[in-house]
Amino acid sequence: MPPRKTKQDDQPELPLSSAPASVPETSLVPAEPALPPPPPPQSSAEPPPAGGPEAPLAQSYRKWFLEYASYVILDRAVPHIDDGLKPVQRRILHTFWEQDDGRFHKVANIVGACMRFHPHGDASIGAALVGMGQRGFLVEPQGNFGNMLTGDEAAAPRYIEARLTAFAREVVFNPKTTVWQLSYDGRAKEPVTLPAKFPLVLLDGAEGIAVGLSTRILPHNFNDLCRAAINHLQGKRFRIFPDFPTAGIADFSEYNDGERGGRVKVRAKIEVRSKYLLAITELPYGRTTEALIESILAANAKGKLKVKHVDDNTSESVEILVHLPQGADTDQLVRQLYVFSDCEVSISPAACVIDHDKPLFLGVSEILRRSVDKTVLLLKRELEIRLEELEQQWHWDSLERIFIEEKIYRRIEKSQTWESVLEEIREGLKPFVKNLRREVTTDDITRLTEIRIKRISAYNRFQADEAMKKIEVEIKETKHHLKHLTPYAISWFERLQEKHGKGHKRRTTYDEIEQISAAEVVSVNQRLYVNREEGFIGLNWRQHEFLTECTILDDVVCFMADGTMKVARVADKLFMGREILHVALVPKEGHGPFYTMIYQDKESGKAFAKKFQIGGVTREKLYSLVPSEGSRVVFFDAAKAEATTTQKVTVTLSGRCAARVKEFEFDLSDLTVGQRGAKGVTVTQWPIRQVRRA
Q1: What SS3 class is residue 160?
Q2: Is the pLDDT of residue 19 over 50?
Q3: Mean pLDDT, to the nearest integer, of 149-162?
Q4: DSSP state of 76
Q5: What is the pLDDT of residue 37?
Q6: Confidence at residue 59, expressed as pLDDT on a 0 to 100 scale
Q7: What is the pTM for the complete model shown?
Q8: Cβ atoms of residues 180 and 53 within 8 Å
Q9: Within 13 Å and on the Cβ side, how many CA atoms surround 222?
């Protein structure tokens, strides 16, 4: 189905011109490529080349990506800065407003009615409505709307109900200040944006992926936003930090006001219930109990931590019980949970909104300022409209009073035509026009003729005076608010907070979160084995040669008989190279061991000796320590310190060589530590049969 026609569709390309210098922005939608120069004219007998500028679909193919990208960015994935809503959310709320009677509506009915405005199927509408109902600020749910803590899905739309909240009715809707447009099929009207008088995009947060960009705005606390709005109106500085519905402990030191490049670290709250029992009572944002438990069990299966079993008792509040085995260290396991499971996550915010039909990256403070300024303008417009209505009501009540009290209605008893009726009333009002605030129009006179006799006979002057006084008091009050708009807006936010802020305490506590090194908390609970001939290393192979106890984060270095070397992270089974001569764990701190090697060079036939350290290497990369392929290592030694390396060796030459001395001693202490790729010092020009320590 083609996308609905909106005002931005009339433009040939997405307007992505630069914004004011004070607002940073980024455009990730590519500009339309320049068209190639037209080809030279061809004869009528010669058809145009395929795909040329005269081809019927050429222009469409040149613009299709830009149009699609513009549509996804503007009409699907990114919220608008004016009301903080995506199109599907705006259409859902508009549908609720059209059908609002104070009672709950079947979600299936709302979804079906909303499809008049949102032609993308019921699945997207239903999912968005359930999400709004789970957060509960704009849509009040009734029934099984799922559980955002456990990840359980909502019941089918025909079984659940919802309606607008009192907060939504108060701050989101006002047909008198709404700008309207036709729906995608032209059969109905829908709002371009709703006249929201609150930063909804910061209250609920937003996530979306468009073409070339994405947005992630984290949710904030209702009371925090009200106080920040008041501070902005008072000219004070303010800072706002996210408040997650799943609570948790957050570090906002690198939040960067919600702009790109920032980062928020969030931890679950873990309580130590007993020596062998931990309880997770708060979740990191974006994680469910099911996902968190899966991450713990996966870390346990990989040997990163050790737990006995995990129970999930979550209902209205989070409670995940982690049972520990005998002898476990609770403090150590808590740190392991933060490092190796989803008990600690890092979130990268990127606040992107639509402003004047283009995507704009802003900080959350700037979004709040713009929203509050827009609220002030909406409040001003509402006051102006109310003042116009009061002035009109005062004018009509004044005319009615004159019409009845001065008995002008008697002047029309002998009138024979409609024109004479109007003229008689106009003549009767002339002596009193000077007391009115505007001219008397034909519509005003017509309205007087519609007053019923029953109303004239029941007219009470005292009640009319009281009604006029109330109108005059309200007019005076409205004019005062218009002259003192900022104090009025401040009091409006204060009333809003007092009315709707109860029960919305901050759930997320913020504190500086220390960086835990995985190497510090990983358990030494693995056994490393080696199969030297076939060249494999692995964990927990009982049928092969045992080397040492290790952790799943350890690195292993292997030296092979062909003079190659490889470093890799330990794994269940990993091929290193055939004929492994030496294998050991790579030290995490300090300098590595000193290696001494004697090898027979294939190209020259000579034997060389060298002493080296491995230095910096890349995992899984095979390094050659000899100058030519086919060389063989005849002696290898590793020592933690240079002083403890082998001093002298006895070299036995091949019996077939022409050397007169077939055995001699070689002093390795004369070797200096060099590069691992160095050729080394010549030991002999003859083939070596054996090298042993002296």
Answers
A1: coil
A2: no
A3: 94
A4: I
A5: 45
A6: 64
A7: 0.77
A8: no
A9: 18
